[in-house]
Recover the amino acids of this structure.
């Protein structure tokens, strides 16, 4: 697996994926998006990984957006290609069969905020800053910002943030529900790892099916959503881990999930 701008580290059951272009504040160019796609393909295959942390190299930035220098002179056709590439990668991440925690040290702007929103859970440092500043560049958010931000923070706040391009700090992001937790910068990775390991102690297939039920169920009406949940609930009963989890409870012993 040859990567230029993304690194993948495995710590027992947890993968740490780092966008590594600190000189450009980890801005997403097409090379980086392709690397990210390659890493996600690897994560999809690895059955020994139960949770993923996505972060940016350096303390200053998670991801400062799509690469403006690369985008500046794109033709309509190239713009479309870039958009499709990014959207496919973000969607693949969102649908990855493992929970993904974004660990956000600093700037999460434009495509960076959108990347964080394609993750399941967001932990931010006290220094993190968030914005969808695209309108100031003459474009709309293009990696799902107009769709995921209102789903996370509600219509009114999303419209305010997107129409103004205002940068908000971590405490405000926490207040509006854009991030789950704010921690001191020096504790960021430790907190993300603690959370990832805690999730990884649970039955991985059940966690995967919870993600599927939440992601699919929230896209349809409640009558269909309940069926999505029932389908995923049913699937648990074909797993050894369901027998193990319930067996361990009845027998009052420690459980030992095998991801089977
Ligand atoms: N792209 C490319 N390079 C960037 C960058 C970016 N988004 N952000 C920062 N850099 C680079 C800077 O150019 C600079 O490079 P050098 O000049 O040193 O070579 C280096 O990172 C350090 O940045 P600064 O010198 O500016 O650092 P400061 O601390 O002074 O400022 C800043 C930090 C984050 C406030 C500032 O860099 C900044 O405003 N950056 C741009 C933030 C931004 O507007 N981000 C949103 C980008 S728009 C699409 C789908 C999605 C998108 C577009 C299309 N389609 C569907 C087609 C997404 C769009 C976006 O994300």
């Amino acid at each position: 697996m040859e990567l230029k701008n993304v690194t993948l580290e495995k710590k027992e059951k947890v993968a740490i994926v780092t966008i590594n272009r600190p000189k450009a504040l980890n801005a997403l160019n097409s090379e980086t998006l392709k690397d990210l796609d390659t890493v996600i393909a690897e994560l999809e295959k690895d059955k020994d990984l139960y949770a993923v942390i996505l972060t940016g190299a350096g303390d200053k930035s998670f991801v400062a957006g799509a690469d403006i220098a690369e985008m500046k002179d794109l033709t309509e056709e190239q713009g479309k290609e870039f958009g499709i590439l990014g959207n496919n990668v973000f969607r693949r991440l969102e649908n990855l069969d493992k929970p993904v925690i974004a660990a956000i040290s600093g700037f999460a702007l434009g495509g960076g905020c959108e990347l964080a929103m394609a993750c399941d859970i967001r932990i931010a440092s006290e220094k993190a800053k968030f914005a969808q500043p695209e309108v100031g560049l003459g474009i709309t958010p293009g990696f799902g910002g107009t769709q995921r931000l209102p789903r996370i923070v509600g219509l009114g706040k999303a419209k305010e943030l997107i129409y103004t391009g205002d940068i908000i700090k971590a405490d405000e992001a926490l207040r509006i529900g854009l991030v789950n937790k704010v921690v001191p910068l020096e504790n960021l990775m430790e907190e993300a790892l603690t959370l990832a390991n805690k999730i990884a102690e649970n039955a991985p297939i059940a966690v995967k099916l919870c993600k599927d039920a939440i992601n699919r169920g929230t896209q349809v009406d409640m009558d269909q959503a309940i069926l999505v949940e029932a389908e995923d609930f049913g699937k648990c009963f074909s797993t050894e881990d369901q027998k193990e989890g319930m067996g361990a409870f009845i027998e009052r012993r420690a459980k030992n999930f095998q991801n089977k």
Notes: Residues 6-200 form a domain with the 2-enoyl-CoA Hydratase; Chain A, domain 1 fold (CATH 3.90.226.10). The first helix runs from residue 30 to 45. The radius of gyration is 19 Å.
